[in-house]
Amino acid sequence: MSTACDAAPRQADRQRRAVPVLVAVLLALLVLPTSVTGSGVALPAIGRESGASLAALQWVVHGYNLTFASFLLACGSLADRWGRRRAFAGGAALFTVASTVSAAADDILLLDFARALAGVGAAALLTSGSSLIGATFKGKARGRAFGAVGITTGAGLALGAMAAGLVTDTLGWRAFFGLHAALMAVVWCTVPLLPRDGAEEHAVRGRRPAGEDGTDGFRPVRVDWAGTAAFSGGLFLLMLGTVEGPQRGWGSAEVLGLLVGSVVLLAAFALVERQVRHPMLDLRLLRNRQFTALCLIPVVATLSFVILLPLLPNYLMVANGYSSRDAGGVMLLMTLPILVTPLAATRLLRWGLTLRGVFGLSLLCLTVGVGWLAAVLEPGLAPGTLAGPLITLGVGLGLNFGLVDGAVLDVVAPESTGTAAGFLNTLRLGSEALAIAAVSAALVNLVRKPFDARLNEFPSYDGSSGRLANSVNAGDLSGPLSELPASVRPDFTALVTHGLTDAWHTVLWASAVLCAVTSAVICFLLGRSTTGTR
Hints:
Elements: H1 2-50, H2 54-70, H3 72-82, H4 84-104, H5 108-136, H6 139-171, H7 173-189, H8 198-201, E1 207-209, E2 218-220, H9 225-248, H10 253-275, H11 289-306, H12 308-319, H13 324-335, H14 341-350, H15 355-376, H16 383-400, H17 403-410, H18 417-454, H19 465-473, H20 478-482, H21 489-526
Antiparallel strand pairs: 1-2
Helix pairs in contact: 1-2, 1-5, 1-6, 1-7, 1-12, 2-5, 2-9, 2-18, 3-4, 3-5, 4-5, 4-7, 6-7, 6-13, 9-10, 9-18, 11-15, 11-16, 11-18, 11-21, 12-13, 13-16, 14-16, 15-16, 15-21, 17-18, 18-19, 18-21
């Protein structure tokens, strides 16, 4: 009887502690995706004020993506070692400080550095936040909590570009980062309400509980610093070489040195992971065909959907003459379906469609969507014409949004779920960072060719083809036009918009082919045994 009486207060106490956990994590996860989608929309305004090159500007996005992807597993290990709450607090504090510095930065290099620090904070927030929810909620409540996480993250993706455009057009780009700092400061203030765990209590000894309740003894947790350094360094050099290739020339000693250094570090990473006792990534997981296939699904999403988030608004601002706000509004056609399509995926599974079938439908939508966009994209295109391909892309991503994460954990051994989740998120965010950098570089390289051939027709333009390519790919045509007499501006605009459109056609068709090939490989690896059980 006394046990039953004691259980009720404990249950009530658990529910009271669950509320601040959910509020804190959901608010953090609302901010993190807007930092990716929104910063791309703010780039033209940052470029006009700073006069920075496209390569320097793009590191506002690349720096965040790179550190976010590279530090996920390291931050997860630190959360295990020092405690979830402590890692969450550290991530929120770092993100707040970095966003504050971003809002106040007068130098583009300082802004790039601050954004990279924000990515580290984001990695700590994502890993520790998910762990907090997993530890706080049980049973059906955990499912509902993670459902709320998916919807909130989708809302951040859906509304990020529009919110950034609205804030940038009305208050300036600094207000965009300042708003992030303010929201994350609120998150940080909730930390005292979050529950402690055994790892935090025993952080001094550098050990964490082996059992869930901490009564089964303690075992040491070591961070794979060598693997983390090799992976982060290799990815950084690869991205830097990709960004600098169009600027310095792909055959230049600097770019070749960066790419060779990247190969060396990534090869060292593979060797380290085979030797260390607690690897950052357990490469043996790749022997599991279904696991490998599921981890490739976010790569297709990256090649079709994610690359458009920071880059397509810039095209719309140049080729269609949109403001930042208008470009962000058009992007809602692609992002809003993410809010509702996951529910449709759940319904399809209940109606008997296999998980493999849902993923196949998702991959089909993503591949068709990017090909459709390549077929219709033209200067001056009406939003209604863009609606079909953009909505299709949104539906494609929404069908696998969150579903992949659960499926990955179902196809690996229980003791490997943490590593599997870390591998998935690292591949997801790493492919996003690299693909955005590669597409940005390709667009600059492709658009310079028509400029090289025809800029001599406009002797009043004092800039180089490289400078013009950088400017228009950052979403700024007004700057170059201001240097020209009014009589030649229409012809100059036509040269720029058609050259930029041709470059986009090449990139989008290449993306469609890569998506089709990767999707075929995924469906083959998944086989016939992946059934809907949810």
